[in-house]
Structures are given as C-alpha cells and as structure tokens.
Amino acid sequence: MLFGSGGAGLCAAIEAAENGVHVCILTKEKYCQSNTIMAQGGIQAATEEGDSVELHFEDTMKGGHYKNNPKLVKKLTEEAPTALEWLSKLGITFQEEPILAGGASKKRLHTIGDSTGAAIMKVLSRKVMELEKKKLITIKTYADVQELIKDDKGNIGGVIFQHNKKYQIMKAKVVILATGGSGGLRYGDLNTSNCDGITGDGLAMAYHAGAKLIDPAAIQYHPTGGVFPTNFSGKLISEKARSLGALLFNKEGEPLISQGNRDDIVKNILSEINKGKGIKNPSNRDGVWLAIPLIDKINGEGTIQKKLPALYKKYKSVGIDITKHAILVYPTVHYQLGGVEIDEKGMTEIPNLFAVGEISGGIDGENRLMGNALCTIIVYGRTAGKEAAKIAKSIPLPKQLSISHLNNFAI
Predict the structure, then answer these.
(1) Residues ≥6 apart with Cβ < 8 Å to 165
(2) Gap between the Cα atoms of 144 and 201, Å rounded
(3) Residues 6+ apart with CB under 8 A from 172
(4) What CA–CA distance (Å, rounded) separates 251 from 261?
(5) What is the rounded distance in angstroms from the CA atom of residue 308 to the CA atom of residue 41?
(6) Which of 160, 174, 226, 301 could, after both became Cys, cross-link 232 (CB 3.0–4.6 A)?
(7) Comparing 402 with 24, which gets the higher pLDDT?
(8) Are 289 and 252 in contact (CB under 8 A)?
(9) Which pTM does this prediction carry?
C-alpha cells in the first residue's frame, strides 16, 4: 500500500508493481495533485564530461552546510545518472544542454523548458495507468489516510482512511509514505509555492506510529516567489531564470546576490527589504526586482520564450511581457528539508514502513540544491518500491491489528 500520488509515490508504485506485488495508491485529493507537477527547474545528475558523482556529492553536502546524512547523499548522487536513463526509457527527452544551478560547481541541471516536473509526472502517470489496466495497481482518490496501524508484533500492518465520509480499515504488508512535506500550511505571513493539500499529514502519522523525525521544522524558502499580480503570489519563478542571467535588484537599482545557495539569497533579499530598499506592490506587499529581460540581452533574443515558455505565457496572460519588464519577487515557503528519518532503502525504523520524497529527512541538510528534489523522488521512490516488493512477497497479511487506541474513529 502506498499513499501520495506525486512523483515519489508513482515511482515507488511502478517499481513495486513491476516487481510482482499489487499496489494500492491512496491519495487524499485527486490523482497526481502534487508539488512534483509544479517543479519547474530540472533534475541534477552528473552526466557531462568533467563532472562526476563525487562533485555532485560535495556540492550537495556543501549546500546543506554538511548537515546532510552522507550515506543518503552518496546514494542519491551515485544513482542520479541511472535515474535519467530510467526516465528516458519511460519516454522523457532532455533536449537542452545541462545548465549551472545555484550552488553547483558544474553544469548538471537537466531541464525540459520550465516544466520539467510536469513532463516527468506525465510519463510516470502514463506508466501507472498501464499497470492499472493490468490490475497491478489500484488507485483510490479522495481517500484521506488518518492513522497508521500496527500488527500485534509492532510492525506496520495497515491504515485507517476516510472515504465518502466513512472511516475504513485496510490491511497492508508494507506501507510507503509519499505524502510530501508541510508547505501548504503557509508558515507565518509568507505565501507558499505548495499545493494546499500538502499539510504534513504523513509526518504526523509517522511520528504517532513511533518513527523518528529529523529537524521537522527545517523549511526551505525559495528566493523568487511571485508578488504581483496578487493571484501569482508565492508561485515560483524558476531558479532557471537566474541561471540564464536574470538578476535581482533593490528599489535603488543596486544588484543583489543572484547566484549561490538559496538560503544565502533569501537572507540577502530580506536584509535589503528590512533596510527599506524593497518595492511595494499595489497590495502593500514588499518585493525586489527580478530583471528577466537580461536573459535575452545575454543569450540572444528569443531565449526567454524558448527556455522559459510557461513563465512567459503566464505573465503575458495578465499583460506583462517579461522580455521587456522586470517582475516583483519575494521569498516563498517551498520545501520541507527535515522529515522522517530513513535509511538508504527508504525505510524508517518502524518495520515495514517506508518514507520517500519530501516527507523524508536527512538528504538535504539545512539547504537543498535546485534539481535534487526531482532526483530524490526517482532514486528513493524506485528503491523503496523494489524493497517494499521484496518484503511483501516474503510475509503474509497481518492477522491481528492493534486498534484499541482508535476508539475515536467511527469504523
């Protein structure tokens, strides 16, 4: 059993099904509604001449201020090139040359315009649909999982979920949590790039079941969330824009830090605004300028429309031509850095319970590099799916579940 239908969940479901077990996907909203589909930037993998998995490892550790779990990072960076090959077999084509992401020492960010996450989700979903037709995967939408249940031996043995306003119990040999982080809770007064449904459910359930959490309050703020128009508030302007040459400026026209680790850029933006050098939007929200037209100045006319087509169309729809005008940006709640502690197999310390994707902790340390999130969902999603299949084929369904503490549920 698996819950969450974002990138990590679908990768796990595909591998588990193809390794001989039936998978039930429970998702509390509609199928594939997740942060993965909104991931614009790309996926990091050391595939080019002069680059190496060792350099990717060092960049990731350095970016996380060496608070990352090196074993988890080692697996991530070593298997990143294989992740690209797997995506290629599913139908993904990275036609652009890799670019340099913030905090990286080499050009290893593989992109598909500024809709890489959407392209990946499209091929993953197509594969899941194929497996569903073969009766290897069952998908249950609007199934809101409430609680993990253990068997009489203390292993995870199933879940309680709410569907059609009724609580139900479902037994499972293995459970994979792929519920994302908690960015939809909108911390403080900040906007968020997250879907509204990303509210930390999996973190709470894992903790209640006895799993260890690593820095669950550690949240990454993306430097460039929209500020104007107001309906764009918090929505990402991909870091790819700055990788291509867009620069940040305060209201006095002074350049700010535009390249490097995300946390350093966020601190610089907030510092300038605290000095009174921010720009107010019509709703009296602060921001700074992101001069996107510089991309065409540096790379040639037409680069913005070619490399950032979704962003160009989005702003054009409200009468803003980003090939001619700078846009207002402000940091936005973006990514759960901490989470459920896992090992290299994606397993928690609770037997038969896995956690993959943004819900897991330990990979990113105190700061995540652009492009490592999509890499993480594939590497660890696939691994968890394979490992879960091994366990599921070796054990029976639990006969006895421990549900004495669940009297509040009208089952």
Answers:
(1) none
(2) 9
(3) 1, 24, 156, 157, 158, 159, 397
(4) 23
(5) 10
(6) 226
(7) 24
(8) no
(9) 0.89
For residue 147, report the phi and psi dihedrals to the nearest 5 degrees. Answer: -160, 140
User: Mind telling me the catalytic residues?
Assistant: 222, 242
What pLDDT does 33 receive?
76
pLDDT above 80 for 124: yes
Q: Do residues 326 and 315 make contact, with C-beta atoms less than 8 angstroms apart?
A: no
Count CA atoms closer than 13 A to 258's CA, side-chain side.
24
Interval 366-390 mean pLDDT = 96
Instruction: State how far the Cα of 367 lies from the Cα of 365, in Å rounded to an integer.
Output: 6
Q: Phi first, then psi: give them for residue 252, nearest 5 degrees.
A: -95, 5
Paired tokens of 410: 């009208």
Q: How far apart are the first and last CA of the chain?
A: 20
The tens digit of pLDDT for each residue in 284-297 reads 889 999 999 999 99
When mean pLDDT is compared across 120-124, 144-148, 231-235, 250-254, the lowest value belongs to 231-235
What pLDDT, on the 0 to 100 scale, is given for residue 22?
96
Contact, 160 vs 144, CB < 8 A? no
Please tell me whether residue 395 adopts helix, strand or coil conformation.
coil
Token pair 């305060």 is found at 250
- Our CA dihedral for 263, 67, 373, 320, rounded to 10 degrees, sits at 0
β 401-402/144-151 pair status: antiparallel
Of the listed ranges 169-173, 182-186, 311-315, the least confidently predicted one is 182-186
The closest alpha carbon to 2, from 132, 222, 158, 223, belongs to 158
Burial of 215 (0-12, 13-18, 19+ CB in 10 A): middle
Tokens representing residue 169 in the block: 């119990």
pLDDT digits (tens, 9 = 90+) for 61-70: 999 999 999 9
In angstroms, the CA 227 to CA 320 distance is 13
3-state secondary structure of 331: strand
CA distances from 288 to 205, 251, 274 (A): 39, 7, 12
What 3-state DSSP class applies to 260?
coil
